[in-house]
Amino acid sequence: MGLIEDETDEVSRLCENVIGCSKLITCMTSLIRVDIQQTESRQLTVCLRFPVDYPKNRLLIEFKSKTMSETFIERFSKVCDAKAAEYVGKPQVMNMLKFVDSYLRDNPLCIVTEEIFNLKKLLEGTKGELKLRQKSSTICLTARGEPFHFSAKFQVPEPYPLQRIQWEDCDCNLPAALMRFVNGQAKEIARQCVEPPLRQLKSAPPFQAKPSLERTLRFIIEVMKGIPAEKCPICGDLSLANDILTNPPTEEDDRFVIRMFCGHIYHQGCLKRFMSEPPFPPGGKICPALKKHRWSDGIQKIGAGTAKSELCQQRVTHDKWGLNDVKSAEAKWAHQQARIRELEEVIDFMQ
Question: How many Å apart are CA 164 and CA 287, to the nearest integer?
């Protein structure tokens, strides 16, 4: 027998025993095909063909997968071509199958290659960072919107995307209310990726889990890029003053920021004046912002795009404030006006 026949015989005897989670589909001198299924996501079919004048030329390698991205397969093919070149002149098949198997095990983040590629593009020009930790299957993100930052370590679970990405703590220098919004909304987006809605139309297709990494981190990156430019709908000034980190406002300060359910960020002092002065429309005050906020609590869903450029028109509501009691607001304003008139009359009398 020649070398090619020897190698096909070796593969038929050893492949499934030496390479865990593998299944030999075809083993002929014209084609060797092996399925490697390490996890729900790390599934790869390896097709090997012997070139003319083998082994002086490297094996011809082709990959197919229903679970792994084209971005990964394209890049991995180049890695394997380079590795196969090292075995020129020697038996190559089992060596390459072992290499493929070990590479997938040593690089668990290969299942999110395309998502990582897209996130790195999104971070360009932002001074943000994305660092990969293959051994622990974690991704460290630092998203920036000067002078603010959000950093966290995200764990990609083995059953991904059936399970969502996880993270415990974050390092963020935004005001507490905004930090809770960014962190909480990100976790809600990740949850929606893997859990079906409580109420689903009977005509809707069966729920399928979606990859949560890019959707979640994209939200964090885009919010951090946009927050420094947020303006108070009342005064039109930046919601977060330039000195907010060196001179943070207290909860009683007029500069203290409050994020409404519509998504817009108000200065506390501006909001107090807006809510205490007429008109007092039935049902409560309407946000005066010139367009809907992209990250409104009412419209934020998986894959939600930019809000249309139309008036916000949402009621100004917040769980900390009783802002919709029209009669109370009118009575309070009337009382304040009466006090002002009384003071003016006293001044006139004294003069």
Answer: 35
pTM for the model stands at: 0.84
Any residues with CB less than 8 A from the CB of 62 and at least 6 apart, and which?
46, 47, 49, 77
Q: Report whether pLDDT(301) > 60.
A: no
What is the torsion angle, in degrees rounded to the nearest 10, for the CA atoms of residue 244, residue 250, residue 254 and residue 256?
A: 60
Percent of the chain with pLDDT over 70: 87
**Which residues are CB-contacts of 331 (< 8 A; sequence separation ≥ 6)?**
none
pLDDT in tens, 136-185: 999 999 999 989 999 999 999 999 999 999 998 899 999 998 999 999 99
**Spatial separation of the C-alpha atoms in residues 282 and 217, rounded to whole Å:** 40
pLDDT, mean of residues 95-101: 96
Q: Are 160 and 134 in contact (CB under 8 A)?
A: no
Is the pLDDT at 333 greater than 50? The verdict is: no
- Strand, helix or coil for residue 27: strand
What is d(CA 340, CA 343) in angstroms, rounded to the nearest whole number? 5
Please count the other Cβ atoms lying within 10 Å of the Cβ belonging to residue 5: 10
DSSP letter at 111 equals G
Per the rule left: phi > 0, alpha: psi between -120 and 50, beta: everything else, 124 is beta
Strand spans (E) along the chain? 22-27, 32-37, 43-49, 60-64, 129-133, 138-145, 148-155, 170-172, 257-259, 265-267
β-strand 170-172 against 148-155: which pairing, if any?
A: antiparallel
DSSP 257-320: EEE-TTS-EEEHHHHHHHHHSS---TT--B---SS--TT-TTT--TT--PPPSS----B--BTT
For the ranges 95-109, 199-213, 308-322, the one whose mean pLDDT is highest:
95-109
Task: Compute CA distances 233 → 258, 270, 320, whole Å.
Answer: 12, 9, 19
